[in-house]
Each structure stands twice: as C-alpha cells, then as structure tokens.
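Late entry, written up from scratch paper. The run itself happened at the end of the previous shift, but nothing got recorded in the book at the time, so transcribing now.
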Amino acid sequence: MNAFTDVDRSGRGPELLHYLDDAHRGLAAPKGVMRAGLDVPAGHDVLDLGCGAGHELVELERTGRCAFGADSSRLMLDASRQRLEALGLPVRLVRADAHRLPYADGVFAGCRVERLLQHVDDPAAVLAEAHRVLRPGGSLAVLEPDWATLALASEDPEAARIIADAVGGHVPHRRMGRQLRGLLVAAGFADVRVEVELVVYTSVTELSHVISLERAAHAAWTGGLIPQERAQVLLREQHLLSESGAFHATFQRTTVAWARRPPATGQ
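Output as recorded:
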C-alpha cells in the first residue's frame, strides 16, 4: 500500500509527518523556485491542493498571498491547522478529494500542486479541477518527481538498472515528472514551461534521504527480478564506493511546471 494515497488509514501518520518535515527542508531550493514562479500578486487567493502538513501554506502567507489548503487527510489538516495557529496565521482549510473540489468555478488567482499527482487515482481529473477553480488567467505551479530516473555507476550495470527500476514501485504514477507537460496541455492550460532538477549524489547516505537502495533491492529480489545474492553484491559494491569517495548516482529529483488558465475570450 502507498501510504500517501490514504494517510488516515495507513497507520503511519507520525512517520509521514516526519517525512514531510524532512522534505520541506531537503527540497527548500526547488520549493523556492516553484514559489517564485507562481505569478500571483500579494493579497490574492492561492489554493494549495494537497496541502499536507501546511508548510507551504505558511510560506504563501509570508509572501503576502491568502493561502487556502485542501487535503483528503484529516491528520494532515490537523497538522496544518496547528502550524498556522501557532504562528498566528489565518486558517482556511477544507477536507476534500482532489478529484472533486468543493469550490466554485474561477475563485482562485493561483494554485500549487506539490508531489500529489503521483499518488492520486486520476492525475488528469485533478488537473481538470485545478483548471476549473482557477480564474481565467490564473497561475498554476506543479512539482513532481520522476522515480524512474535513478542511475547508478556500477561494475554490474544490468543489476544496477534492475534495482533502479524498482525505485518508487509502490507509487501509482512513478514517472509523473516526465508526464506533466502533456497532462497540463491536455487539461487546457497554456504558457506551459518546465524545469528539471537533476541531482548528483556522492554517497549512499546522501542518496538515502531520498531513495533507499536497500528497499529497492529488496523489492527487486522479492519480486523475482534479480537473485538475492546478486542484489546484495550490488549493495556491497555501492557501499564500498561510497566509503572510498567514488560513489556516483544521478536522479531527476523534481520537475517543476508552471502554466496558466487561458484568459477569457476577448480579454
């Protein structure tokens, strides 16, 4: 089960909240890039669709926007409420399915969607809802990973590829990063632009903050994709490379896309 698909029933709430705290720190740079590209003036309403624990609701308020949060998880909304109240910031939260938002058409000047589309049943339907609730000319920002982009340097490139292919296997849409442009165009957005963050990792420890090679290797051998012994040899090799300073891995950690709902005809 992918815990982020149904946080409240996953039984892993505290772990997921801790993960989001770590991710907010670890993804500070791409989050900042995403935030800077969201073309919404101060004082206007922005929806954080899939707001999680509320980190970006705080950032939106700090930049002068009026932040609204929607999430399907009661636990996440409770965390968002506590975070906002602790800072004396307005609380504008709603529990909602991202496929069916309880907002009227064209009510938001901006919308942000971060690491949500990879987990939902129908990403196209979620983007259609984002399009609907944005006003004509409204701005959208989306951030997603592409779990299928891990590449490892190894003396056994086939084993490295098999284990890399197991990364994010529990995520419903593990290639979401590369699908963003097509989905945004299909949803009716215009002025689509995309930036990719390719990260080079120089140790297993550094990579483990994002990807666990051990978990991927376990998934590969229990799935019958590679013998356990060969996977373990690959893991030992990677740890030795890391200890010697020769470890090399690349990963397309984030794809950030911006787009607009086209202005109304005649504008």
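The mean pLDDT is 95.
(Scratch paper discarded after transcription.)
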